[in-house]
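Entry type: protein chain
Record version: 2
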Amino acid sequence: MTTDYTRAYWEKALAETTPRGGMFIDGQLTRSDTGLTFIRIRPMDGKPGAEIARGGIKDIDRAVASARKAFASGVWRKKDPQEKKKIMLRWADLIRKNGAELALLETIDVGKPVMASLNVDVALAANCIQYYAEMCDKLYDEIAPTGPNDRALVRKVPIGVIGAITPWNYPMIIETWKLGPALAAGNSVVLKPAEQSSLTAIRLAELASEAGLPDGVFNVVTGYGEEVGKALACHMDVDMIAFTGSTEVGKLIMGYAASTNLKRVALELGGKSPLVVFADADLDAAASAAAWGCFYNSGETCHASTRLLAERSVVDALVEKIREVTDREITLAHPFEPGAQIGALIEDAHLGKVLGMIEAGVRSGAKRAFGGERVMSETGGYYVSPGVFIAPSNNSSLAQQEIFGPILTVVPFDTEEEAVRIANDTAYGLAGAVFTTDMNRAHRVSEDIHAGTVWVNCYDLSNFATPFGGFKQSGFGRDRSVHAIDKYCDYKTIWQRFS
C-alpha cells in the first residue's frame, strides 16, 4: 500500500517521535561520560528539537578502544567476504524499510524538505551501502612478477581504525560515502557527525547492528567539533581521518594529524563551482541547470553551481530564464509540505552569515537581480529565497566566497580564454560545467577547467561508478566508486622464497 505523505502525516509522525540522542559505542546506545547534553534547535520552526549527548575526550577514547578491539580481533576484518556482503545488504534493506523514520529525523535536524530526505537522501544512502556490499567479495590481491624460486603476494589490507567526520548538509549520504568503502575494506569506524545533524547517524548505527555488524565495528560519538572532532583527529590510536566539511576545518585536521601520529587524512572540502554558458548554448537548459544546481538543498551543497559565467551578450536573457525556472519549479516552503523543493537553512547563525555575505556583496557593487532575502520569518525558521546577483567582476566577495546558501553570482565574460581564466580564478576546484553547442569548444573548456568533476551541457549528474572529490583547496581523496576503497586500504607485500 502506498503511503499518502501529506503534511498532516509528517506532523503526526513528529508528534509521536522521540528521537534517540545518545551515542552508539561497542554495539550499545550510551550517554556521554559526563552526562552532558545539548538541545538541537529545529531549522524549520526555530523550536527546541532533540536532546543530543555532548561527548568529550573520554567518549572518543571509549569508541576508539572499541573499534581497535574489534579490528584486532578480526571479528569483521577476517570475516568471510560473502558474509560481510550479506550483512551490509541487510543493512541497506533496513535503511529502506525504515526510510520514513530516517527522512523525518533528517528533516528535523537540517530543515530540508522531508520528501527530498526520503526520495533522495535515504535512497542514496541505502544504494551506497548496497554498492559497497557488492564489492566485499570482489576485492583481489596481486601476484608480482618474480624469479622462479620466489612468490611475491601484494595484498590490499585495511588500514585499521578510521575516524570519519561528516557535515550537516547531506548527513546520511556523506556518512554512507565514508562507511560503505571503509567497512567493505575491513576497517572499524568511529563516526563523529556534525553537531547539527546527529539523529540519522545514531539510527544508522542501530540498523547496522540489527543487520549483524559486530559490536565495535561502527561507533558514533556525538558532540561539538572543537571537543569531539578535534579529539578524534588528534587520537594516537586512530589510523586515518576521512573528513568532509569546510576548507578552514580541513586545514586544522591536517595540522592535528601532522602533530600527533601522522595519521592519514582524506579531505573533501569547499567549492565555488563555475557554470560556463556560451552564447550558442541552449539557454533554457543552461538556466534550468544553473537554478537547480545552485538552489537545490537551499544552496547548502559543496559543489553547487554558485558562479554563473555567462557570455556578455546573453546575460540578461539567461538571468530572466533563471527567474522563470525558479518561480515555476523551485518551491520554497515548510519542509513538511509535499510540494516543497527547498526548505530552511541549517541554523540561525548560518542564516545571519548568509545574509551578511549578501549585504557585503551588495555594498561592494554586486547588483541584485532577484531574491536573496529572508522570508517566512513568521514561522520562526531560517529561510532565504533563491537569489541572483550580477557581480562587477570575479573579484567580488560573492564570486569568491563559499556562501553555502541559495545565492547565484553572475560574472560576464567576452572570450573563451577569459571564461577559462575566470573559471579557474578561485581557491577551489571541486566541480564545474560548460554549456555550448560547439563540441570542440566543449572539449577544450572541460579539459581546461581545473576541477574534480566537469559536466558538459548538464549539471550534477552522477552515480556510484564515478569518483567525487576536488583539486586545490577543495581537498584530496575521492568518495564513491571503486577508487574510494583505495584510501581505506594499504598495500602489503608478502615475499616467499622456495628452495
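Comment: Residues 7-269+475-493 form a domain with the Aldehyde Dehydrogenase; Chain A, domain 1 fold (CATH 3.40.605.10).
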